């Protein structure tokens, strides 16, 4: 497993900033600990509204781990809002997270394909999380 610091050093990239948007506190905590230990700068949002606000206010590009199933303003709502604002969509790299058994709606799957947004299934393997975040971080560099 290659740490974020080693990956950044190898590619001469800045350390990646990650925003975890999930209504489940335990999921946010586990992801924060894992990613922090790997050298990522991590912020959290407990719902879609807060996540979108933090994305708008961010001084730096973010890798956003975005839970699909949240009350009121879910991950798809956030993704549509981000996609509708080119400054957000071009600046941040989003990864949708959802439970393994949950079937995502066709409209979301189609939108994710068109917008090139990957899916990370829960419960996830830690290596899968690191790979998804690393790939998303590389997309940030590619698009900037």
Tags for this entry?
single chain; alpha/beta; Rossmann fold; five-stranded parallel sheet
Topology diagram in text:
Elements: H1 4-11, E1 17-21, H2 25-37, E2 41-45, H3 48-57, E3 62-67, H4 75-84, H5 86-91, E4 93-99, H6 106-115, E5 119-122, H7 126-143
Parallel strand pairs: 1-2, 1-3, 3-4, 4-5
Query: The CATH topology is what?
Result: Rossmann fold
Please state the overall shape, judged from the principal axes of the Cα atoms: globular
Averaged pLDDT: 87
Helix content: 40-55%
* Elements, N to C (H/E): HEHEHEHHEHEH
Question: What structural category characterises the helix and strand content?
Answer: alpha/beta
What is the correct CATH architecture? 3-Layer(aba) Sandwich
Strand order of the largest sheet: 2-1-3-4-5
CATH classification, class level? Alpha Beta
Nearest-angstrom radius of gyration?
A: 14 Å
Major β-sheet, in short? 5 strands, parallel
Compute the number of helices: 7
- Give the total of beta strands: 5
Task: Specify the CATH homologous superfamily.
Answer: Response regulator
Low-confidence stretches: 8-13
Terminal CA distance: 26 Å
Strand content: 15-25%
How many structural domains are formed by the residues?
A: 1
Notes on the structure:
The chain has 144 residues and is an alpha/beta fold. The protein has one domain (4-143): Response regulator (Rossmann fold, 3-Layer(aba) Sandwich), CATH 3.40.50.2300. The protein is built from seven helices and five strands. The chain has helices at residues 4-11, 25-37, 48-57, 75-84, 86-91, 106-115, 126-143, and strands at 17-21, 41-45, 62-67, 93-99, 119-122. Strands 2-1-3-4-5 form a five-stranded parallel sheet, with helices on both faces. Strand 4 (93-99), helix 6 (106-115) and strand 5 form a beta-alpha-beta unit. Helix 3 (48-57) packs parallel to helix 4. The longest helix is centred in the C-terminal third of the chain and has 18 residues, at 126-143.
